[in-house]
Write a structure and sequence with these properties.
By secondary structure, the protein is mainly alpha-helical. The protein has one domain. The chain is built from 23 helices and no strands. It is globular and about 75 Å long.
């Protein structure tokens, strides 16, 4: 059988397995292995598949992933997120939209130690959404703010999505991490603007607040003391990578060690009202969640490598690249086209699955067209992030729904996140029109 036909049949099989509900890691490895067996024979396919998986998941650079995941869980368990929100509530909470803005800013700050959108959204849905409802926020809008703002955690370093993208594409992980700073800040600004403007369009989104007692300036300044774990961790990650002091792997190790010490200090030595057994159970849960999440991502990365080898071997990526380049489309048209594909896929499958399936097909075309790899990667990550709050399978929606109060339904979250969906689409347009917003800072990474 012609190798190209085998490649096309493999893509069809992959789509069929995904539609049947098979886990993306298993679907990728089954498709890739069967395709390699058809082209090379069983013995050679086994040798290539095992070598590809081992080569992908045994590299030292992959240590970055579980360490940054651990950093996020430690920051959540150590109460850092609650302290940040309390401080921002004192600083801006008196204004009508202030509490929602405090949530967005707290998610942005928390994102500097937590690279997971799901964790950030769930944590602040438990901390800030009930407080917003008590202060007159409509339930869908209150939880919608948390679902949308949680996605900033995947843009601000340490972004798990940027690390996975770098591992699959070969683009510098350090540059990708730094590239997320400006888009992350842009999202925070646009979300705050949306929170300020939306109640003017929909008056019931936030009821007029009752007059609040003025908070002394001294108390506001004292609240800033709680920011020291965030400042320290951000200094290690941003300063270390940007200044050439650490590689991303080293920065993740140092940050994880520092956050672990902070967690021990806050959870064990300063913790009150909890027994030693409960504290150890919480720590065990953090380590278990880190291991489980990391193992799932490792499986997908290894399986994606097998599938990528299959598409290259059959010539599918080369023929697809030649076909698309032959259309004579401009670089902007190609990037917009791929972004639209990711926006559509985001309605149905999760972020890591999207990258695992598409990078081996799309990135050769991007490279052949001479498109800036960092700019394209940022646009892709932004487009994928939109999928976190788009129905029917927006994963942040369900993450928030899982911890929300009982009267909250999925339709409330979909309505509540709509203004932020518009803000996210605007941000993609801005990055498309001004690529320097994504590429300027990474150019200085040593």
């Amino acid at each position: 059988m012609d190798a190209l036909l085998v490649g096309l049949a493999g893509v069809a099989l992959l789509l069929l397995l995904l539609l049947l509900g098979m886990h993306v890691g298993m679907a990728l490895i089954i498709t890739g292995f069967l395709g390699l067996t058809t082209v090379l024979g069983l013995e050679r396919a086994l040798e290539m598949s095992v070598g590809a998986i081992y080569g992908k998941i045994s590299g030292t650079a992959l240590v970055t992933l579980p360490l940054f995941i651990l950093v996020g869980y430690l920051a959540s368990g150590g109460g850092i997120s609650r302290d940040i929100y309390a401080s921002l509530e004192l600083l801006v909470g008196r204004f009508r939209s202030g509490l929602g803005m405090a949530t967005v800013l707290a998610c942005t700050a928390f994102g500097t130690v937590c690279g997971s959108s799901l964790v950030t959204a769930a944590v602040f849905a438990k901390i800030s959404a009930p407080e917003m409802r008590a202060r007159g926020y409509e339930k869908g809008f209150a939880y919608g703010i948390c679902a949308a703002a949680g996605s900033i955690g995947m843009l601000i370093p340490p972004s798990i999505l940027a690390i996975v993208y770098g591992m699959l594409s070969g683009v510098s992980i350090g540059k990708l991490l730094i590239a997320g700073i400006v888009p992350g800040i842009l999202w925070a600004v646009l979300f705050c603007v949306a929170i300020a403007l939306y109640p003017r369009i929909r008056s019931q989104a936030i009821r007029p607040p009752e007059p609040a007692r003025a908070v002394p300036l001294s108390r506001k300044l004292l609240s800033l003391r709680s920011w020291w774990p965030i400042v320290l961790s951000a200094g290690i990650i941003f300063g270390g990578i940007y200044g050439g002091v650490f590689t991303p792997t080293e920065a993740s190790a140092v940050a994880a060690f520092v956050l672990f010490l902070i967690y021990l200090y806050r959870g064990f030595f300063r913790g009150r009202g909890r027994g030693i057994g409960e504290r150890f159970r919480e720590l065990y849960g953090i380590l278990n969640e880190t291991a489980t999440t990391s193992a799932m991502i490792f499986l997908v990365l290894g399986a994606a490598t097998v599938f990528s080898n299959f598409t290259v071997l059959t010539g599918l990526t080369t023929r697809l690249s030649e076909f698309v380049i032959g259309l004579g489309l401009s670089q902007m048209s190609l990037v917009i086209g791929f972004a639209l594909v990711y926006l559509l896929l985001g309605c149905f499958i999760d972020s890591i699955s999207m990258l695992s399936i598409t990078i081996s097909l799309f990135n050769p075309i991007v490279n052949a067209a001479g498109i800036d790899a960092i700019w394209y990667a940022v646009v892709v990550i932004l487009a994928i992030e939109v999928g976190f709050i788009t129905p029917p399978f927006g994963i942040n929606l369900y993450s928030v729904l899982g911890v929300a109060e009982k009267d909250v339904e999925i339709k409330d979250l979909i309505v509540g996140t709509f203004p932020f969906l518009i803000a996210e689409l605007i941000s993609i347009v801005v990055i498309l029109l001004f690529p320097a917003l994504a590429t300027y800072l990474p150019a200085f990474v040593r």
